[in-house]
Amino acid sequence: MLALTFLHAVAAALLPAAVNAACGKVIIDNDWSGSSSYTPLLELLGANCTILGITSTVANVYAYQGARHILRFLEIAGIDYIPVYVGANEPLINTVERSAAWQAVFGAFTWDGAFSPDNATLDAQGGDPTGNNPLELTNIPEGVPTMKWQNQSAVDFMIEMAHQYPGQVEIVAAGAMTTVALAIKQDPYFASNIKRISIQGGYVDVNLKQTDPTPANQTFPNDDVYADFNFFIDPEAAKIVVNAPFQETVIAGQVSIPYLVTPAIFNETISMVTPITQNLSTYWASSIGTPLWDEIAAGVIAYPEIVTKSRVVYMDVDVAYDSIFYGRTFVAVAPFQPVNSRNVTFVEQINFSSFLSSFIPALQGNYATRRV
């Protein structure tokens, strides 16, 4: 009987998740690392989403420095009508020292983001401050913005929008989950008022196969190439967000691994000369060869029709600091899910050609005259 129940649960979990075609009101939460991190924002603008606001959170860089990058881009692109809010500048519990101690025992990460050792030489050359310098602001290659971030915190802004537009707001969460987690803890109604959150993160390796009765499942044959840094830098925040009662939680991190920024994509994008593509021609070249992580997480909301296979499973995050799996996600189907875990829509496959047909024109668009 138990085996039959399990198979029925798995069969139900394999049904494709329903997605809405229209793009509505969106908050995009990111670490805005580097000088070309704004491409997910352009996708959403190209899909005629209403961008309620941009929030900056910690991950690859600290939140205040990331806010400077996105503010300067908004000036360059003439998109100064979108407000920017600064969120969590540091993880809930994790620190540079705590992360280093864990890695000394269980092995080093391939990427440390804001926790990377500080390099004063790179700082002086326009690199982003790292290490124990969360409040340091350095000059950035594209120039220091004159536009300012809002006085209201990103956490309060998110909560306000969730109450002002209940059931209408979608969030793209492409940095650490810290800012979103703080909103969840501050307001017990926040998550249930959010229509959908699309998360860049949540790698599950071969564990996903445990929810698939097909022995030949090879959805992610090479999924350990990249570390799930958005969860690793703040595992406690990731657990809070994954366990929260959002109307729909979409996990769109792992599916992006095979899809890289190629020279062909880069060259086609900058073949049309605009202020945005001129900026991309200078700064996006360094992204060639890396996955379109944030872009696909945003694409799930901007172009939901690109999702060709998804699975509804329970997900949770390991927050045992003394575990080699600290910060890693795992999935299950009923009745085997952990207590307090919730269902998520795990995106397994996308139509990449369809994605590019919308993505590249979005990067070439002119949004300077648009107002919300």
UniProtKB/TrEMBL annotation:
Domain Inosine/uridine-preferring nucleoside hydrolase: 26-356
UniProt KW keywords: Hydrolase, Signal
Record's signal peptide: 1-21
Keyword set includes Transcription regulation: no
Entry's Gene Ontology molecular function annotations: hydrolase activity, hydrolyzing N-glycosyl compounds
Entry-linked InterPro entries: Inosine/uridine_hydrolase_dom, IUN_hydrolase, Ribo_hydro-like
Cross-referenced Pfam families: IU_nuc_hydro
This protein's record includes keyword S-adenosyl-L-methionine: no
Family: Belongs to the IUNH family.
PANTHER family: SI:CH211-201H21.5 (PTHR46190:SF1), SI:CH211-201H21.5-RELATED (PTHR46190)
Protein name per UniProt: Nucleoside hydrolase
UniProt organism field: Dacryopinax primogenitus (strain DJM 731) (Brown rot fungus)
